[in-house]
């Protein structure tokens, strides 16, 4: 039977695809199969519109299940076929918990997307995140490039070019050094006092419990805006700007989805958008407005102490001597500073208060440590150097271990020809990562991993801890990521969070309101939704009362 030029083209495409899918050495005669289809009465447009798409899907299914370079790794069939599997779990908010369950079912290596591997192994932390550099075998996956679509430029988190990333990091780090952060102490102290006054007003005077997550989100955003941009939003004292607390996590979740399905970005050009997409637009405009306002104010902060952005505006690359960031880069960095400086810190504060509220003895021990260091609130706020409070840092780290800011995978692209990770060869082109939530609950890394035990962080770094942890906790602690791509604002976060926790513990005694937030035991988990940055599902609701043993002036 004579075929048309269109049919010949389709047949050649099918023949090539089928032969390529079978791989070298295949005994399946896909060529004859394709020609047989060409002799079928269905032709022309009907053939092209129906048969070819079905054939293409069939080829893709067979390839991804049987011939894909990652086909030997276990995982759900749906996940092997499409990234919609992960998108579904991102939308429902259980992606971090789902990865944890998948590893319990399938083991150390889980294929959770057609080209994605989640690797639950302590060795993989260093091998994946510690090898970044000019000669690295892994780079940031294109998951992060969706940021450039919305902000006009890549920021420190999304930049995948090693040299450009190093330049951005050198510039941004100038505003986040220990000295720079210490100069921002008054910003932190002012907002911490407002936080405590809010707790007093809403919990003590009304004798009601408060939603700790809401308080933490308002506080960290106020403190971030004050210390980073020299701007006050007053979320703690006014409802006017609290819409930000809804927009911010939804915008981050939108980016999280787009990172897994970049093709969905075309929906941005449609006249109608989902609420999540509209929230992303609002967030982009907010970060642009904040950055524009701060740029117009000039290179010096309007207060006696500098803010982070004043360092960025004055920064020069210490290696090349070149001028700092462009206007578009500053706007893009404003967005990541807002997320990293408020969203992640809020979860850490919430989780720590929750665990302290569950564990009265731990709370009392922490109070004693802080009181031994500072005898009054004025002393604590005037010189908030809490680095010597080892148990305070341990309480915070242990809460972040159980409730990490990013519980899913931070994806990295394996470059050709591939490399060995945790004893298994992973081919080039694969996207790999370590699931933070699952790693922090791995009994091969932490003894009694589901229990809140701050003392596991108290031993000097000798490779073992006081409670016989399998590994040094710092070596497998993913809350700030790790390696050259680790969080540049870590010092900022610890300064803000330790001061807030220290002041709350010295001023109040507190416990979980079990009528609104039932707990089964002192080791009850804080349930969260994974929107890339995790958020508590409900509460936690905590009752505060004035501490009876406060020192004078506290």
Rg is 26 Å
Share of β-strand residues: 5-15%
Strand order of the largest sheet: 1-2-8-5-3
What is the residue-averaged pLDDT? 83
Largest sheet: 5 strands, mixed
Tell me, what's the shape? globular
Q: How many distinct helices?
A: 21
Helix content: 40-55%
Low-confidence parts, pLDDT < 50 over ≥5 residues? 1-7, 13-28, 461-467
Q: Going by CATH, what is the homologous superfamily of one domain?
A: Cytochrome P450
N-to-C terminal Cα separation, in Å?
95 Å
Q: Would you tell me which CATH topology of one domain applies?
A: Cytochrome p450
CATH level 1 name of one domain: Mainly Alpha
Number of strand segments: 12
> Which structural class best describes the helix and strand composition?
alpha+beta
In CATH, the architecture of one domain is Orthogonal Bundle
How is the topology of this model organized?
Layout (H helix, E strand, L loop, with lengths): L4 H18 L7 H9 L5 H24 L9 H5 L2 H9 L2 H12 L2 E5 L2 E4 L2 H8 L8 E3 L5 H6 L10 H12 L4 H6 L1 H20 L5 E2 H18 L14 H17 L14 H23 L10 H7 L12 H32 L1 H14 L3 H6 L7 H13 L9 E3 L3 E4 L2 E4 L3 E3 L2 H4 L50 H18 E5 L15 E4 L1 E4 L4 E6 L8
Parallel strand pairs: 2-8
Antiparallel strand pairs: 1-2, 3-5, 4-12, 5-8, 6-7, 9-12, 10-11
Please characterize this protein's 3D structure:
By secondary structure, this protein is an alpha+beta fold. Among the domains are: 1-67; 152-158 and 165-372 and 481-546, Orthogonal Bundle (Cytochrome p450), CATH 1.10.630.10. Helices cover 51% and strands 8% of the residues. The chain contains 21 helices and twelve strands. The strands form four sheets. The chain has a five-stranded mixed sheet with strand order 1-2-8-5-3. A hairpin with a 2-residue loop joins strand 1 and strand 2 (116-119). Helix 1 runs parallel beside helix 3, helix 16 (327-358) packs across helix 19 and helix 16 (327-358) packs parallel to helix 21. It is globular and about 80 Å long. The N and C termini lie far apart (95 Å). Residues 1-7, 13-28 and 461-467 have low confidence and may be disordered.
